[in-house]
Specification:
Blueprint: H1 27-31, H2 42-55, H3 64-67, E1 68-75, E2 81-83, H4 85-98, E3 103-111, E4 115-125, E5 139-151, E6 154-162, H5 164-170, H6 204-219, H7 227-230, E7 231-238, E8 245-246, H8 248-261, E9 266-274, E10 278-288, E11 302-314, E12 317-325, H9 327-338
Parallel strand pairs: 1-6, 7-12
Antiparallel strand pairs: 1-2, 3-4, 4-5, 5-6, 7-8, 9-10, 10-11, 11-12
């Protein structure tokens, strides 16, 4: 990897509670022996996710050691994986040193009996070095999503993605394009988990199947007409580093540009769970760059992608969606390929 520091931390935040339906869980979670402990409720797991973001900025202090299991596995998006609480705390300490006044606003939370997910907005003033960027004194904000696996009242595994392209651009880095940051959590955004209009076909199982079509049919088959079936006409899509879009027509235009950049993109659903109003889909995939992406010309680079999408549904259609992926890492993979460096196998 060409000498660039690729340590990145992601975080998410939360705001309302839901019922329960858990669907496929991760292989890592499956491999964890069942513990002798009381089961937790979706409400308790949502509170645990909130506590994570309230305590994370204190590293090993405070209650974070009660929230995170001693053997927690943490997938930091484009920054690799840490194993155990000590490595987790060391990683957070680097982040907290760079942004001493770091705060997380919890924008959405959903939970089941053994999973939780949060959408968050972070803000902080850079007073220390961050990924090769000297202290700037700038106050910046960025967004992210985290998915948590919960057992015995603690987080045992976490997957995170965040908008590090916008973060680096806001800090003045010259290795990323200056994109208009999405106002991902506008005050006018409907609160997730609110009472949906009663209608036939809604519910956790139906919502899950609808959300999966976004991955399998819209993305993998590049069938934009499916959006007319699964999304409301005035859908709001929060695309992290890319500007928010409103309405199916604008969403189709945005996705068309992604298809042009990666014409053979193929995504796999790694995990998915749902409640009555919200679906969480964690995914990974591969693609070959065939067109311009973030200012980089299409030169046939093979890239690995990871990400999380969260969908809020109303009456069986997607009314709002949030998407975070390893955009910065994809940009670096494209540049590495141009420099003759191989992309690691995902």
């Amino acid at each position: 990897m060409s000498g660039r520091s690729r340590f990145v931390v992601t975080a998410l935040a939360a705001c309302s509670l839901f019922g329960s339906l858990i669907l496929p869980v991760s292989a890592a979670q499956d491999a964890t022996p069942a513990a002798e402990c009381a089961a937790t409720t979706p409400e308790e797991n949502a509170e645990l996710a909130r506590a994570y973001w309230a305590e994370a900025v204190w590293g090993p202090q405070g209650k974070i050691s009660e929230v995170v299991a001693p053997n927690e596995i943490h997938h930091w998006g484009i920054a690799g994986t840490t194993n155990g609480f000590d490595e987790f705390a060391e990683r957070w300490a680097l982040f907290n040193t760079a942004f001493p006044d770091l705060k997380f606003n919890v924008d959405l939370v959903t939970a089941t009996e053994d999973m939780a997910a949060t959408v968050w907005t972070a803000s902080g003033t850079q007073e220390g070095e961050w990924q090769g960027i000297a202290p700037t004194g700038k106050t910046v904000s960025w967004t992210g999503i985290n998915v948590f696996s919960v057992a015995c009242g603690q987080i045992t595994e976490s997957w995170g993605e965040a908008d590090h392209v916008s973060l680096r651009a806001a800090l003045g880095a010259t290795d990323v394009p200056m994109l208009p940051m999405a106002d991902a959590m506008a005050a006018s955004t409907p609160a997730a988990g609110g009472a949906a209009t009663p209608c036939a076909g809604s519910g956790a199982e139906a919502n899950l199947e609808t959300a999966k079509r976004w991955t399998t049919e819209v993305w993998n088959n590049q069938d934009l007409d499916v959006l007319d079936e699964i999304a409301s006409e005035d859908i709001i899509h929060h695309g992290a580093a890319f500007p928010d879009v409103s309405g199916t027509d604008a969403l189709k235009d945005s996705l068309t540009r992604q298809f042009e950049a990666f014409p053979d993109l193929t995504l796999n659903i790694d995990d998915a769970f749902a409640d009555e109003n919200v679906v969480v889909v964690r995914w990974s995939g591969t693609a070959t760059q065939g067109g311009e992406f973030l200012g980089e010309p299409g030169a046939g680079a093979s890239v690995n992608l990871t990400g999380v999408n969260i969908y809020r549904l109303d009456c069986g259609q997607i009314a709002e969606s949030w998407s975070e992926m390893n955009t910065l890492d994809v940009l670096y993979q494209i540049r590495d390929a141009a420099a003759g460096e191989a992309t690691p196998t995902a």
